[in-house]
């Protein structure tokens, strides 16, 4: 079984999708000859042709808007938005058109589309290249939102997204793009959207997170005393999300820390925390603790590690929750 | 030679049937025959009837806000006839009702839509129309995308037309749609119904451009200004653009000069911002008046036929209103059921319980008695 980075796994999966389904079309800025600014689509145009891996004009709203048209006509577009911060210009097309099309036509017109977006901080990028807007889209009925953190999960979730009959925003944590390799089967497989993964089983406290912070949480757990038993859950899907797995875990442990890069207020951690108090009230030994980005503009990269929920801050958050 | 001309352009204006019903026979060659003119006249008249009745339905509280099409019908019918029904795609805004009907949308759907019911946009199978688009200037990108798919799939004899107003050409997505269409050379026709007003803002204040048509020059797109109240000019312009599109000539732009004779919608009062003299002048250019004058001049129309048509229009629209008002109220589960192909479990639970409040959802925690459907 080959070992792949996150970038490699996504490239391999797009290659599979293009090869197996003539309706799949990749479009975006610099995705063709250049293979994308992160080289996620490297080599795909040479292999599948200029009609199927298309360099578009520099217009995010145009990319998503025309992808909607492609989808209405029966294709399965996989547009790439170059960076998280540039999803903003496409918000209107994504939320006011793609997300609504199925319900406003009572199922007559649908938009099967997978919007790939590199997400999050930690790579010393310029401003607007490090944001985590997942909660905005989780709060937009009609789209699904996923954020895999590993090459294996990325492949399974990307195939599930491409084959999903509804629009999916597929966030790729860019800090993980080349941070490690793992074995990824060559044959196609899907991971169900909406299913979390228990990364580590434990009894004393549940940590819920997604994206790049999964690895910061693991680092924080390594620093804890050996007799502390932490259950780590990688949500993977932000909407729909795996309430059952989280609730079952917190009912067992009675304590929960939610970790994400995005700002705290109205971040998706607020939703997770709210559901936990609804479903686990009598099981809780402590309030749900949130360790997140601050309610500020993401700072430029000199201070990005102070902003991001890095391992020491997560460790402190876990300790406080355990001591409550 | 430090200065040289690198680009020159002109915008032509096409009118074939003038406001007095006088036809330029030379220009009219290979456009519409008299039977087609009769057909289009009837479609316009029936649509006008629907428009008037829709207005009354709103005023009497039987329908919500409605945007009248009055005065712009020639654009809809002339273009619809030039496009291939069931093959081509129509990507409308909301002032093209007659075009949608001619391409297979049942008339009562439009009323159902404005009566606040999504089923009005449940486009029947085989009807290649996207739903009415209320947000201004954003749907043209969908037309570009549909046309792009046509090109990728190498589908022959298939094109897309999208309609929008003069105000829409101020939106960024208009330029995105034009730029994408031009760059990809897709078979798409951009049809601007320049009706002079975007609610209360006149065209002159909407843009400093002398014409809307010249905006297409930036995208190197064949572009033309036409009299939008002239079914001959509309038909010819769209027919030519379609021919170019299906022959691989890429997208075209048409600025149709027309006028919104009614208020923007039933929620608007155009007397607040429009000079009555201007409206009066445009009433004389009404496409129905000039088409009728033409048909009378060639002996194809008379008062008897007019009375018959008006009776028929009343009858048709009466049935349409009956169909729209006769539809049963949708079940609340409808607004859940079409959110996703497969409903997430949590959403299904919201649908089944019609509640989002949490206490009581897990009564075992609080020692509450489980609630029954009746006690909710």
CATH arch. level architecture of the largest domain in chain A: 3-Layer(aba) Sandwich
Tell me the name of the CATH homologous superfamily of the largest domain in chain A: Thiamin diphosphate (ThDP)-binding fold, Pyr/PP domains
Count of domain modules of chain B = 2
Could you tell me the radius of gyration of chain B in angstroms? Answer: 24 Å
CA radius of gyration of chain A is: 19 Å
The best one-word shape of chain B is: globular
In CATH terms, what is the fold-level topology of the largest domain in chain B?
Rossmann fold
**Strand residue percentage of chain A:** 15-25%
Largest sheet of chain B: 6 strands, parallel
Into which percentage range does the β-strand content of chain B fall?
Answer: 5-15%
- The string of secondary-structure elements of chain A, in order, is EHEHEHEHHEHEHEEEEHEEHEHEHH
In spatial order, strands of the major sheet of chain A run 9-11-10-13-14
> How is the largest sheet of chain B built, in terms of strand order?
1-7-8-4-3-2
Quantity of strands of chain A, as a count: 14
Number of helical segments with 4 or more residues of chain B: 15
């Amino acid at each position: 079984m080959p070992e792949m980075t996150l970038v490699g796994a996504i490239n391999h999966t797009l290659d599979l999708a293009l090869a197996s389904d003539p309706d799949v079309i990749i479009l975006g800025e610099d995705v063709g000859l250049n293979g994308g600014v992160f080289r996620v689509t490297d080599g795909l145009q040479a292999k599948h042709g200029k009609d199927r891996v298309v360099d578009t004009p520099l217009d995010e709203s145009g990319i998503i808007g025309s992808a909607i048209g492609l989808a209405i006509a029966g294709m399965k577009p996989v547009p790439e938005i170059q960076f998280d911060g540039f999803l903003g210009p496409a918000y209107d097309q994504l939320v006011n058109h793609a997300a609504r099309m199925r319900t406003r036509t009572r199922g007559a017109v649908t938009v099967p589309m997978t919007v790939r977006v590199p997400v999050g901080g930690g790579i010393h990028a310029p401003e607007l290249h490090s944001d985590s807007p997942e909660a905005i889209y989780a709060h937009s009925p009609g789209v699904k939102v996923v954020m895999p953190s590993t090459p294996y999960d990325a492949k399974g979730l990307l195939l599930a997204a491409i084959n999903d009959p509804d629009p999916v925003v597929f966030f790729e944590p860019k800090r993980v793009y080349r941070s490690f390799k793992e074995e990824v089967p060559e044959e196609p497989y899907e991971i169900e959207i909406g299913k979390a993964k228990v990364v580590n089983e434990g009894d004393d406290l549940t940590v819920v997170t997604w994206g790049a912070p999964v690895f910061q949480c693991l680092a924080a757990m390594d620093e804890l005393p050996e007799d502390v038993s932490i259950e780590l859950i990688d949500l993977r899907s932000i909407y729909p999300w795996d309430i059952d797995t989280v609730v079952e875990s917190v009912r067992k442990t009675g304590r929960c820390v939610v970790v994400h890069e995005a700002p705290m207020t109205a971040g998706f951690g607020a939703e997770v925390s709210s559901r936990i108090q609804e479903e686990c009230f009598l099981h809780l030994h402590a309030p749900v603790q949130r360790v997140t980005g601050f309610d500020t503009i993401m700072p430029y990269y000199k201070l990005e590690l102070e902003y991001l929920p890095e391992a020491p801050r997560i460790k402190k958050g876990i300790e406080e929750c355990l001591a409550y | 030679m430090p200065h040289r001309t690198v680009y020159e352009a002109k915008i032509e204006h096409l009118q074939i049937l003038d406001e007095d019903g006088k036809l330029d026979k030379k220009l009219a060659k290979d456009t519409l025959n008299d039977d087609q003119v009769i057909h289009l006249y009837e479609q316009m008249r029936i649509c006008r009837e629907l428009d008037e009745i829709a207005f009354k339905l709103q005023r009497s509280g039987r329908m919500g806000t409605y945007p009248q099409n009055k005065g712009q019908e020639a654009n809809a019918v002339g273009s619809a006839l030039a496009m291939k029904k069931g093959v081509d795609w129509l990507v409308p805004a909301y002032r093209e009702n007659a075009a949608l009907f001619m391409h297979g949308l049942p008339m009562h759907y439009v009323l159902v839509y404005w009566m606040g019911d999504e089923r009005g946009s449940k486009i029947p199978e085989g009807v290649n129309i996207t739903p009415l688009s209320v947000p201004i200037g954003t749907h043209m990108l969908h037309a570009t995308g549909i046309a792009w798919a046509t090109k990728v799939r190498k589908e022959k004899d298939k094109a897309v037309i999208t309609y929008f107003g003069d105000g829409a050409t101020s939106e960024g997505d208009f330029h995105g749609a034009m730029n994408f269409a031009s760059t990809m050379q897709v078979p798409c026709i951009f049809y601007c119904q320049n009706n002079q007003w975007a609610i209360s803002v006149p065209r002159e204040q909407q843009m400093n451009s002398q014409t809307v048509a010249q905006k297409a020059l930036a995208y190197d797109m064949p572009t033309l200004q036409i009299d939008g109240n002239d079914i001959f000019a509309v038909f010819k312009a769209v027919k030519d653009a379609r021919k170019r599109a299906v022959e691989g000539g890429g997208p075209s732009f048409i600025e149709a000069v027309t006028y919104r004779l009614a208020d923007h919608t039933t929620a608007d009062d155009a007397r607040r911002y429009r000079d009555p003299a201007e409206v009066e002048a445009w009433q004389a250019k009404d496409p129905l008046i000039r088409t009728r004058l033409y048909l009378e001049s060639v002996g194809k129309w008379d008062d008897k036929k007019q009375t018959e048509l008006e009776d028929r229009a009343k009858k048709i629209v009466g049935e349409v209103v009956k169909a729209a008002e006769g539809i049963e109220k949708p079940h609340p589960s409808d607004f859940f059921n079409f959110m996703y192909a497969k409903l997430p479990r949590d959403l299904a639970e919201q649908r089944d319980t019609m509640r989002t409040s949490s206490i009581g959802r897990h009564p075992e925690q609080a020692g509450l008695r489980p609630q029954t459907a009746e006690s909710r």
